Every structure is written in structure tokens, then in C-alpha cells.
Amino acid sequence: xxxxxxxxxxxxxxxxxxxxxxxxxxxxxxxxxxxxxxxxxxxxxxxxxxxxxxxxxxxxxxxxxxxxxxxxxxxxxxxxxxxxxxxxxxxxxxxxxxxxxxxxxxxxxxxxxxxxxxxxxxxxxxxxxxxxxxxxxxxxxxxxxxxxxxxxxxxxxxxxxxxxxxxxxxxxxxxxxxxxxxxxxxxxxxxxxxxxxxxxxxxxxxxxxxxxxxxxxxxxxxxxxxxxxxxxxxxxxxxxxxxxxxxxxxxxxxxxxxxxxxxxxxxxxxxxxxxxxxxxxxxxxxxxxxxxxxxxxxxxxxxxxxxxxxxxxxxxxxxxxxxxxxxxxxxxxxxxxxxxxxxxxxxxxxxxxxxxxxxxxxxxxxxxxxxxxxxxxxxxxxxxxxxx
Length: 388
Ligand code: DNO
Ligand code: MN
Description:
Elements: E1 2-6, H1 16-22, E2 26-29, H2 42-54, E3 58-63, H3 69-73, H4 78-94, E4 99-103, E5 114-118, E6 124-128, H5 130-140, H6 152-164, H7 167-178, H8 190-198, H9 205-226, E7 229-233, H10 251-260, E8 266-271, H11 272-276, H12 283-289, E9 294-299, E10 302-304, E11 310-312, H13 322-336, E12 341-344, H14 365-386
Parallel strand pairs: 1-2, 1-12, 2-3, 3-4, 4-7, 7-8, 8-9, 9-12
Antiparallel strand pairs: 5-6, 6-11, 10-11
Helix pairs in contact: 4-9, 5-6, 12-13, 13-14
The structure holds D-mannose and manganese (II) ion.
Manganese (II) ion binds near residues 233, 271, 273 and 345.
């Protein structure tokens, strides 16, 4: 696997020199300052590319060129936004970058109810709690009929918990849920958020799938001609939330995706944390099945709980068997003679990083370094044992 590390650019408290020191050779980043839906201009791309190169690293993957909401909704100026996307693909290809991660999650990127959940060893992890989600959905957002989406047991707990929550606790929960990644939904108010959600009223899974298929049929031919690989990131968490349809959650969703347009450029970011939160996903089996489509790997582990809640565990612990996952990947790499770019996806906030209040949640240096180091050891152990 090609070892990479995510970097959020100048505003990131993790620097390119830090990334060099963790032992990664590749950087995963985006032009976070370009508004969603605008063209990525060549001079802006080269600027960042030179910065990365002069640190002795390579810009391995773009994560992400985000998809404008009008494209997901197929409404308003979506045709112009698709043309902009095509132009961005041409421009990055001209700079010699050939890999793009993107996602098709309506309104939000990944969603957690707690960004600083305390672990017993003193570090913190990201957590998604179904009861807190129900509180937000039914009592804070007050979405009509939302309560029917949750089981009676979850609603009982949510109702009694909400009634004893302080105003401050309600604000913290709201902030945790609305805090987007750079370039997604920064600084969103509850009212703005409600109106973004309402744009999706009545849009079914089938509608959203058809909009994704339309988008791919427009952009993939451009990407294919230039040798650019597109790699969709699965929905996180892999379930419908807040009434929004989610369409990349399972093996059959990925089957649909690859069937929208048959092209080596139409591929997947195999995120074991996102897909692993769905107990029905057999990850090693899916890796075998989509071997030709996996262009990018996000490796992390979640510990699932019976009611659908989960937290982000150590990279080698949790509900997914990381040994079998990495073994399946290495067998593909060996068979095809390739190295797939991989990044440790999220990490615990720990050690000195616990004092770092400006870090992006999940993206502190030390927790991800620990994850990368563990994965690197696992890779070496498997390779030596199986002569891969
Ligand atoms: C979650 C993370 C996400 C991901 C974006 C890609 O698993 O990897 O932040 O980067 O959804 O578009
Ligand atoms: Mn991921």
C-alpha cells in the first residue's frame, strides 16, 4: 500500500514536515479555499502541488472535489456545475494529478454526535450515538415524523435524556453534528441547516441514485480520456439520517455504482470505517468483489453497538477484522502488481494533541501516526508470512 496522510492545507495544525516525519510518502488534500462548485484553476492547483513537492512528498489523491448540492438535486444551475467539474478534472490532469475522491452525501459529509468521546485511557474518539441522533432529529431539529425512524426503545431513552439535558449540552450536541470538514458545511446555523434539508423533501433513494448516475455519465468519459480515476467515498454513517437518503452504504449500492457506467475511471474509495459501521457488510468479501474498482483506501475501525451506535476504535481493534482486510488488499496488490494509496482515516486525540484545540476533529497527528504505524506493521507481517 502507498502510505499517505491527509492534510488540510495552510490552516492545518499538522504540517507537511510532520507528514514527512510520520513516514508517509503521499499527501491527500484539496483546494479547501475554492468554493464548492467553482472551477479549480491550474495556477491554484500548481501552487499547492509545488508546496507538497518541495517538502519531498507527492500529492497522491485529491480528497475531495466536492459535488455541488444542485448536482445532487439535479436542479438549478446543475449543468453549469457539471461543466465546472469537468474543467477541474481537465486542469488537475494537466498538472499530472490523476486521482479524485468525492462523495454523494446530501448536505453533510461524515456525521458524528460526539467529536471528543472520552476513552478509558484518557484519549478521545469520534462517536455516533443513536439516542443522541434521535434527540437531535426529533427534539432539536424537530423534523416532522422523525420519531418514526427510530425504534421505540431508542425513542424512550431519547425522550428521557432530552428532558434532563442542559442548554449547554444541547448546544454542544448541535455543534458536534453540524461541524463539517473544511470546504463542506462550516459554520452552519440550525435554520440554514433546516432549509438545506428541506431541499431534499420528497427526493427518494431512486431519485438520488439516478442523479448520481447522470453525473457520472457526464464526467466519467472526460476522466477516462485523461486517465483520471474517480473514487466515491461511502456514506458515513451508512444509514439514512435526518430524513436524507443515503445511497452508498452496502455491497449492492456499490454494485449499482459500478453499473452506472462501465469504466476504469469509475471507482471506489474503500473506507473500512464507513462501510464497517454497517453490520451486513462483509469487508474482505467486498474487497475481493470490487478488486478492480478500489482506487483508494481509508483504513480505520469502528466498534459497533447493538442499537446502531458506534465509536472509532484503535485501527486494529473494533468490529472489523483488520488483519483479513489488509490481507485481502495485499493479495490484490500482489496479483496486479500495484500499490493502492492508503491513508489511516481518523485517529484518536491523544498525548500532546489533547492540548491542541485548533486541530480538525479526527485528524490530529499523533492518533493517525499511531494508526499508520500499526497498519504498516500489520502489512509487513502479512507480507513476510505469505511471501507477498
Ligand atoms: C470519513 C472521511 C470523510 C471523507 C469524505 C470524502 O470517513 O474519510 O471525511 O474524507 O467524505 O469525500
Ligand atoms: Mn473515510
